Amino acid sequence: MLRWLTSFVGLVMCIxxxxxxxxxxxxxxxxxxxxxxxxxxxxxxxxxxxxPPASAIAxxxxxxxxxxxxxxxxxxxxxxxxxxAGGTTIxxxxxxxxxxxxxxxxxxxxxxxxxxxxxxxxxxxAMQMAGTPCPFFGEIGEEAASxxxxxxxxxxxxxxxxxxxxxxxxxxxxxxxxxxxTILAL
Length: 186
What we know:
Layout: H1 2-7, E1 12-15, E2 20-32, E3 38-50, E4 70-78, E5 82-91, H2 93-106, H3 110-117, H4 121-129, H5 142-150, H6 164-185
């Protein structure tokens, strides 16, 4: 819920009523010459000017550097009366884990780098399957394997499939569609 609230931090509301200005011009012209030719013309014209509503423009949330672990998402909706725009960033935790591990490895802290990677259950399982268990409180090899067996509560949790997000996404999309229809009905 907090993610949805923060996504509207960049909310921009533009409210304008399309205005119509009407101008009526009446012109009468009389022209008489000595040859007794008379020309009369009457012009009645009505001009209506309609100004367009303000535009909702999605904010530009981009990553100018490839060394950050965030992705920008933005969007906008515009009707005749109301315009809404918003945006947010999404943090990629796996990207951060890879960068932290690489930095530790580059500083010569190889066991710490492997420990950071082992915080991901997929890496933890792969290390177990390869016969090289993840480090356990500074222990490596057989000592680490026995440490994991005696303290399974330190094993990273399994990554669940995100099947529930489809229901949440459908609910949010339905809510946004209902709000859009309500705005259009006004």
